Amino acid sequence: MRFGTKAIHAGVEPDPTTGAIMTPIYQTSTYVQAAPGDHKGYEYSRTHNPTRTALQKALAALENGTHGLCFSSGMASIDAIVKLLKPGDEVVSTDDLYGGTYRLFTKIYEGFGVKFKFVNMSDPANVAAAITTNTRLIWVETPTNPLLKIIDIAVMAELAKKHNCWLGVDNTFASPYLQTPLDLGAHIVMHSVTKYLGGHSDVVMGALVVKDDALAERLAFIQNSSGATPGPQDCFLVLRGLKTLHLRMQRHGENGKVVAEFLSKHPKVDKLYWPGLPTHVNHAVAARQMRGFGGMMSFTLKGDRMEDALKVLAGTELFALAESLGGVESLLGHPASMTHASIPREERMRNGLADTLIRLSVGLEDSEDLVEDLKQALDRV
Ligand code: P1T
Prior knowledge:
Distance between the termini: 50 Å
CATH architecture of the largest domain: 3-Layer(aba) Sandwich
Number of helices: 14
Bound molecules: ligand P1T
Shape: globular
CATH topology of the largest domain: Aspartate Aminotransferase, domain 2
Strand content: 5-15%
């Protein structure tokens, strides 16, 4: 089955009792048993819920995996992966990554004795140099948030295989429409479902997809034991969102290209980070491992003055100033004070995340309107 057909049909079947074509919202915490242990596969909704099961199957199919696991947020899904580790284990992670992931790693799990190294993964030699016999996980985000670096998943998979550790890929910025890391050798693919998969800025959720039965069993044990599972109403909303994922991603990419081309020629724009530009430092890897370049990008202004960046951030009318991304509406954000504020400034500076960086999540509006909006905001500078 091809991607669009899977987006609409995978995981969902007409409801067995009524024939309802849409998976019902099974708003129940528990299930009646005929005798102890004599049930229909559902005992308690933290463990299993039919609406969640349908979504987990759909996500597994879209990522070309065999097991999907949903969590109450993207962070809860990353948290479940780190719970596979024990004190003394090491993680090699990308240096440019979502601030919340950095915070979880350094402020929570370092306290439990797990060690994290953050390296520029655009050069695989940095990863190879950071791996020790204690390394259990290579954690990749690609494209990275917010600098849109591209990391070669297949090369990371070779390193993971050689050193007998897991490769986990945060696929939030790409979505499975643009990139399927399990096909490139990753062991675990992770999503902030809040973003493109949900697609309508109305749900917070996370997910993991794997294709190894034993790993799925361990993660399902953690999912149930820690209990950060989403409710059925949210699962329903994501099931609905998935049905248009292919159409939305296509349009995000088309609009992204128009906006990137506009910004790339604008005299006030200095650096522009969008992997679809031939001038992007990792464009060749992006063109090889992705099926398009998406609608996320970041830029700085010439002169690098904070007051100018603030004029743009406050000056757009269509692009709303907000955290998050991947919804139908366009958003812009200021990583240094918003999504990445939990990363110490020296660390951000070292990784090239400027105080003046502006991040765009290009939505599905008419691209001419988006360009006009950015143009008038840049005119204020
Ligand atoms: O917000 P949550 O659903 O818990 O997902 C966390 C997360 C994980 N990974 C990536 C790449 C992310 O971008 C996020 C969340 N990011 C934002 C809220 C943001 O605006 O960047």
